[in-house]
Write a structure and sequence with these properties.
Blueprint: H1 12-71, H2 76-96, E1 100-106, E2 111-113, H3 129-136, E3 145-149, E4 154-160, E5 175-182, H4 184-234, H5 249-301, H6 305-337, E6 344-348, H7 349-358, H8 361-366, E7 370-375, E8 380-384, H9 385-402, E9 408-416, E10 419-426, H10 460-471, E11 475-479, E12 485-492
Parallel strand pairs: 7-9
Antiparallel strand pairs: 1-2, 1-5, 3-4, 4-5, 6-8, 9-10, 10-12, 11-12
Helix pairs in contact: 1-2, 1-4, 4-5, 5-6, 6-10, 7-9, 9-10
Length: 498
């Protein structure tokens, strides 16, 4: 089992726990900032705006009443009527705005309105003379009024109602409006909200931890199952099954991929055993033949020139077979390892195919094979000419080995748009659909019996695949059981030679 470095790797449970916790804290911080800071600032500005609006409205109304009071100064009934209207108006404003308290003072700081009936005991909310004086001494606006913040719980608005300046504040005729705006209710609401946010924060953090633990458990459970199956597969058990009923599409896709990898690895393992058996057989047979015929020369045909020549030819043929096998194995290894680099250049592919076909001429002369040619002249491509020649030779040799009783093979080369298509067609028994991918594997043998007049090692199609993949050329096979096969390759078309 692979041990992960604890300093560099963390479990999904821990990562999800941290991410959910960080996200929850971030959301809570935003909530605190908006609810406790920005909302308080917003509400304070709204309170200032409301107080200014109420102050301007009341001051203008009170100035009207002050003029009416002055007009009725000689009439007791008239003055009493104005005073009654002032009290009613103040009560109406305070009823409409419960957070507001309105007071009117004379120049001596004596409360005139609302009339409590006992000047010695003014209302509890009424400011004392010192507070009134301090407010009036604050910087006035262009309208001649003042709005100040006395504390976190109160704002104050003050204005002189009879005109003039504050220097005449001691005169008996001076009248002053004082409005207090209480923030106690809002501050109480903010305090309640703060405790609610604390409670919500605790609940949210707890839910974040619970949900992250639940989610990580649901996520890691199938991953743990897949990991255990992968460990069994790593030990050689290819009966494991990664598929299951997973809640996540990504994990289901991972399971399908691992199942596919398991099948491919299983095929590779089986192929390795087959390769070992085939290599052992291919090496053992010629060695046995060489040893047997060498002994026959030594013991039987040493003095008979005709038999000696026949036996030595067998030894030479088997030695050639061993050499071909070793060369193919080395070539395949070099190509796949990247040691055998491609030497790409432009050449006439039509000439290369014609040259390779000449090497199979002895089959038509001695064994009755029919090789039909459909080759367009002057088709040029860019590739490694030696590797392409090997591809053409191996595909034609494969067709010779597997063609039907009529011994007919068709080789075609023609332009197809911006590509050159090379095809080799045989009339053999065809290839079953399930075998069309595996025929390109090393040492693959069809389940059907076949003749092999061309010396081969079983590596031909594997070498073709490796070369074409290295070039990046498209290739494939089209086959129908009982109707032969068509192997094809697409080469890039550079130009047509003159």
């Amino acid at each position: 089992m692979i041990k992960l470095n604890a300093k560099r790797f963390h479990s999904i449970n821990f990562i999800l726990w941290v991410y959910f916790l960080v996200f929850a804290v971030f959301i809570l911080l935003l909530t605190w900032v908006f609810q406790m800071a920005l909302l308080r600032v917003f509400y304070s500005r709204e309170a200032e705006y409301d107080l200014d609006s109420i102050g301007i409205q009341v001051s203008e109304r009170m100035r009207y009443f002050m003029k009416a009071e002055a007009a009725f100064s000689g009439s007791a009934n008239g003055a009493e009527s104005v005073a009654s209207e002032i009290d009613l108006y103040i009560d109406a404003i305070q009823s409409e705005h419960p957070e507001v308290k309105i007071f009117i003072f004379d120049g001596e700081g004596t409360l005139l309105y609302p009339n409590s009936g006992d000047q010695a005991s003014p209302p509890q909310e009424a400011p004392n003379k010192e507070t009134l004086k301090n407010v009036l001494e604050c910087e006035q606006t262009e309208r001649g009024d003042v709005r100040v913040r006395l504390s976190d719980d109160y704002y104050a608005y003050a204005a002189r109602l009879d005109g003039g300046d504050t220097d005449s504040a001691a005169t008996d005729s001076a009248r002053y409006l004082y409005i207090s705006y209480s923030m106690q209710l809002a501050n109480s609401a903010f305090g309640t909200m703060q405790w609610e946010l604390i409670l919500i924060s605790v609940i949210v953090i707890f839910l974040a931890l619970f949900i992250s633990a639940l989610l990580s458990s649901r996520l890691t459970k199938p991953l743990h199952r897949i990991t255990q199956a992968a460990q069994r597969m790593a030990k050689g058990d290819f009966t494991v099954n990664f598929k299951g009923e997973y809640a996540y599409a990504e994990i289901d896709a991972l399971a399908e991929t691992l199942d596919y990898a398991k099948e491919e690895i299983g095929k590779s393992d089986e192929l390795q055993r087959e390769v070992l058996a085939n290599v052992t057989h291919d090496l053992k047979t010629p060695l046995t033949m060489i040893k047997a015929y060498a002994s026959m020369i030594q013991e039987i045909s040493g003095t008979d020139p005709a038999k000696r020549e026949k036996h030595t030819q067998v030894i030479i043929d088997e030695s050639d077979r061993l050499t071909a096998l070793i060369n193919d194995v080395l070539n395949l290894s070099k190509i796949r390892s990247g040691m055998d680099t491609l030497k790409v250049r432009e050449f006439d592919l039509s000439e290369v195919v014609e040259t390779v076909l000449e090497r199979f001429g002895y089959l038509t002369e001695t064994q009755g094979y029919v090789i039909e040619r459909r080759i367009d002249a002057g088709l040029c491509t860019e590739a490694d000419i030696e590797k392409v020649e090997q591809v053409v030779y191996n595909l034609i040799g494969n067709a010779v080995s597997y063609t039907g009783e009529d011994k007919k093979i068709t080789v075609a080369l023609y332009a197809e748009g911006e590509k050159i298509r090379f095809t080799v067609t045989d009339t053999g028994k065809g290839i079953a659909p399930e075998e069309r991918e595996t025929i390109w594997d090393r040492y693959y043998r069809s389940t059907d019996t076949h003749k092999r007049p061309v010396k081969g090692t079983g590596l031909g199609l594997s070498i073709v695949k490796t070369i074409l993949v290295k070039h990046g050329f498209a290739y494939g096979v089209e086959s129908e059981v009982g109707h032969g096969s068509i192997f094809w390759v697409q080469f890039p078309l550079t130009e047509r030679a003159n």
